[in-house]
Write a structure and sequence with these properties.
Layout lengths: L2 H24 L7 H9 L2 H11 L6 H12 L2 H6 L1 H16 L13 H16 L4 H6 L1 H30 L15 H21 L2 H6 L1 H10 L18 H4 L6 E2 L4 E2 L13
Antiparallel strand pairs: 1-2
Length: about 270
């Protein structure tokens, strides 16, 4: 498949997963996505893994699919299946549109002490029976907090105001949605996550995915030995740095013509 089509396919699939998962968290008019939710949750790494640890059910082996996918193609999960990854791409797109200057990336050395320290802490917490740290750092959970505590309440307000306005004109097809009291701590945490993502995306691309996210770090270990990897052809590479400038994972080093594939999130920006 042509490189351009490959990237378009990835973008399409990531937006499709993002849209459906967002609708699951918003759920204004009743729980109408039960079946979709069941299927999608099976392919979300941490929810699937936690459920497997709790039940040892074959139906909760979706995380194994992600591991096998990573062994084949690298961290496709991070660029396609993870809704928080797609949210970061959307924030990056908006940042490019609003900024007068084009954002250029550059190679950065990995913060391995932080990456593997957080991964070790999460694994240790799982062995002790606590999912508090997992719940805090899990990208799917973080995405759910942002949508449920910021976007959903905002949408409820818009829906109800619109419903009242339509009722004044004797139009009653848009029902009002019951307001649910918000947890202040949850709202503050969701806003904190949003601000953190905006800052990281605007300045450092996918730094969250490659440093703070335990799923990204774990999948990176498997990506190192994946079957299909992005490499620089040293026989034709002149170290111009163009591929590194569009690498939001900041994992391409044009000086020594190498790619740290453990941090590559499979965005495919560099292929062209």
């Amino acid at each position: 498949m042509h490189n351009g089509r490959l990237k378009k396919l990835r973008v399409f699939l990531s937006l499709l997963f993002f849209a459906v998962i967002t609708l699951l968290f918003i759920e204004l008019f009743g729980n109408i996505f039960n079946y979709s939710q069941l299927i999608l949750l099976r392919f979300q790494f941490v929810p699937s893994l936690v459920k497997f640890i709790a039940t040892f059910s074959a139906a909760s082996l979706g995380f194994v699919f992600s591991l096998l996918l990573t062994l084949l193609f690298g961290r496709v999960y991070c660029s396609t299946l993870c809704p928080l990854g797609t949210l970061q791409d959307i924030l990056a797109f908006l940042s490019r549109k609003l900024s007068p200057r084009k954002k250029l990336f550059r190679y950065r050395k990995p913060f391995n002490w932080l990456r593997f320290g957080l991964l070790a802490a999460v694994i240790l917490s799982l062995f002790t029976g606590s999912i508090l740290l997992v719940n805090f750092l899990d990208p799917y959970s973080a995405f759910g907090k942002i949508i449920s505590n910021i976007f959903r309440p905002s949408l409820v307000v818009v829906n109800n105001v619109t419903s009242i306005a339509l009722a004044q004109a004797d139009i009653y097809w848009l029902p009002r949605v019951k307001w649910i009291a918000l947890n202040k701590a949850a709202v503050v945490l969701a806003m904190g996550w949003t601000v953190l993502l905006v800052i990281l995306v605007a300045k450092y691309g996918r730094l969250y995915c490659n440093t703070l996210c335990p799923v990204g770090t774990l999948l990176g270990l498997f990506a190192k030995v994946s079957l299909f990897r992005i490499r620089l052809d040293k026989s034709v590479c002149n170290s111009c740095g163009k591929c590194s400038a569009v690498c939001k994972a900041e994992c391409i080093n044009p000086k020594d013509q190498s790619v740290d594939f453990s941090r590559c999130v499979g965005c495919m920006n560099c292929l062209s």
